[in-house]
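Reply to dn_fold:

You asked what the input looked like. This is it:
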Amino acid sequence: MTSIVIPKEVHTVLEFSQNDLPGFATVNTALAQFEPKLAFSWHLSVLLQCVDLMGNCLPSPDEQKVLYAFEDKLHPLIKANGNALFLARVTHNALRELI
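and this is what came back:
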């Protein structure tokens, strides 16, 4: 039996530009040196379409509140019993991706 020690999450915010639009990613950088393939051989990506946008196709403050509320409910369900790890949240071009 293999014992896996899951590192405590460390969130780093990154800014980027793609197709002339700004983007933001919150990445769990604690996983940079973590070799999870033995226990976590799959990944789940949830893609959300943002509808209330500001300039540059980014979600408005009200839309962000809705997105964060949804994530706050979703994360404990997905991560229950150590079933999953948070890898990243990416916001770009009217989309929010949870990985």
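The chain has one domain: 11-98.
Hope that clears it up.
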